[in-house]
Amino acid sequence: LCKAILRQRSLEDSVAVILAENLSSWCAPVGSLTCVFKKTFSDPSSCEGETSLRRHLRSDLVAVRKWTGTSSTYLQILMFSKGFHIIQAHRVAHVLWHKGHCWMALQIQDAVNKRYAIDIHPTALLGRRVVMGHGTGVTIGEAVKIGDDCTVLHGVTLIGTGGYELNKSPRIGRGVRVEANAVVVGNISIGDGAKISHGSVVESDIPAGATVAANELIQSSPKGNAYSAVGVCAEGIPLDAEGKIGTSIKSISCGEDYFAMYPIAVPPTKGSVTISWLHKALR
């Protein structure tokens, strides 16, 4: 906690240290890897899709908190959530790949694979507030696209058909839930709000709002592409006067979350948690 939280100036720096500590044994020296993560997170041009990594980080954290309910605090997610760590490491690898640092991106992919038994190609595009529940055994192939507010559970495989043709990989819409051990293969589209039940194998397009179970389409929503967001709107995360997130964890609303694992010396007010409050609370 001292190294990952108390000595860091921002949420980005804390996540960079945690990721580097977790992945260094399979990738690069921890100091070098920390610098790579910190530099990538702090660069305003670092984006996946049209959203900066700083916004992604905060909205991902809130989405995981909402998905887990009251069973986990923000601090527990930040420190110990494998799914959250995997998503952040992939976002950094994705940025590095598109900036021409393909070797480093592949090193991070390989380290995540060895550390967490999860394989996500750096070219895969993940939307906002994607939640990876449990995560072990997930494979997401090259050029796969996953929309906003999706949930991917353990053992899921999302891959293309192979070969040299373009647009060969699945495209997952917004608000889709892909349950454990489901397989989605080929140049197909999964509509917004669809649900793919555990163990299903999908090789053809699925309409919006549909449910697939036992490899059969068993339900289609009359609302078409309507879906319920898992997390919160990333655009709702405020920036400071200079337009930077900087040293504040401004997106995290305290509510009744008092980081129950640790005694809190300074009770939070309802609203936002700053890094300075977090430091005081953990001392």
UniProtKB/TrEMBL annotation:
It holds the Pfam family Hexapep. SMART domains: SATase_N (SM00971). It comes from the Eukaryota. Keywords: Acyltransferase, Amino-acid biosynthesis, Transferase. GO terms for cellular component: cytoplasm. One of its GO terms (biological process) is cysteine biosynthetic process from serine. Pathway: Amino-acid biosynthesis; L-cysteine biosynthesis; L-cysteine from L-serine: step 1/2. GO terms for molecular function: serine O-acetyltransferase activity. Residues 1-89 form the Serine acetyltransferase N-terminal domain. CDD domains: LbH_SAT. Signal peptide: none annotated. Its EC number is 2.3.1.30. InterPro entries: Hexapep, LbH_SAT, Ser_AcTrfase_N, Ser_AcTrfase_N_sf, Trimer_LpxA-like_sf. This is serine O-acetyltransferase. The lineage of its organism: Eukaryota, Viridiplantae, Chlorophyta, core chlorophytes, Chlorodendrophyceae.
